[in-house]
């Protein structure tokens, strides 16, 4: 009888310091893993939420991004901010473009959104494939003009470009017109 009571009391005891820290450890570990997985799923969703705004953005909306004099034949990444107004809610999204001058002297501004599942590509960031865009998520690769070489089903999209008074302005994102 006393054994049963002892057992009952033991199970009712508040958890000791060691047990708490183990529980905390599990909580933090599971919480961290969940946050990591959720961020992996949510970031592309945010990307896809912002993307349509750019795709359907009004034709007159251009954002001043960088001076033409800074553009070379080598792609460089430039960031800029897009103000969004959705009814009463306004927000700012930071976007980026890989901009360069092609062999014809045209300014080409590529979207950094991978055409596989929406991760962010980088230029010359895979030593095994120099002078290409590479996506770290599943290994998509693109040429300097954005032509898809592996994994991705389509070329990288591009921004519409306007040059005015020595500055580059970027507008809507449209399908890539510089590759066949
Ligand atoms: S999202 Fe870029 S390779 Fe899959």
Describe this structure in words.
By secondary structure, this protein is an alpha+beta fold. The protein folds into two domains: 2-50; 58-174, Rieske [2Fe-2S] iron-sulphur domain (Rieske Iron-sulfur Protein, 3-layer Sandwich). 28% of the residues lie in helices and 32% in strands. The protein contains two helices and ten strands. It has a four-stranded antiparallel β-sheet with strand order 5-6-7-8, with no helix packed on it. A three-stranded antiparallel β-sheet has the order 1-10-9. The longest helix has 40 residues, at 17-56. The protein is globular. Mean pLDDT is 83; it is low at 7-11. The chain binds FE2/S2 (inorganic) cluster. Residues 114, 116-119, 135, 137-140, 151 line the site of FE2/S2 (inorganic) cluster (FES). FE2/S2 (inorganic) cluster binds next to loops.
Which regions contain 5 or more consecutive residues with pLDDT less than 50? 7-11
**Structural domain count:** 2
Total number of beta strands: 10
Sheet-strand content, in percent, reads 25-35%
Q: What is the overall pLDDT average?
A: 83
Give the CATH level 1 class of the largest domain. Mainly Beta
Separation of termini?
85 Å
The kinds of small molecule bound in this structure are:
FE2/S2 (inorganic) cluster
Instruction: Determine the number of helices (DSSP H or I, runs of at least 4 residues).
Output: 2
């Amino acid at each position: 009888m006393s054994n049963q009571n002892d057992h009952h009391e033991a199970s009712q005891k508040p958890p000791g310091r060691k047990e708490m820290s183990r529980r905390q450890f599990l909580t933090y570990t599971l919480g961290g893993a969940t946050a990591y997985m959720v961020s992996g799923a949510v970031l592309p969703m945010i990307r896809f939420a912002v993307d349509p705004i750019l795709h359907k953005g009004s034709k007159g909306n251009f954002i001043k991004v960088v001076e033409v004099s800074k553009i070379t034949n080598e792609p460089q990444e430039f960031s800029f901010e897009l103000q969004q107004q959705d009814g009463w809610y306004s927000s700012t999204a930071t976007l980026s473009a890989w901009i360069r001058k092609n062999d014809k002297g045209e300014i080409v501004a590529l979207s950094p959104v991978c055409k596989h599942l929406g991760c962010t590509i980088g230029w010359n960031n895979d030593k095994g494939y120099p002078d290409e865009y590479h996506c770290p998520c599943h290994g998509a690769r693109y040429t300097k003009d954005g032509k898809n070489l592996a994994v991705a089903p389509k070329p990288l999209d591009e921004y519409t470009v306007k040059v005015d008074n020595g500055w580059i302005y970027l507008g809507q994102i449209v399908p890539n017109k510089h590759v066949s």
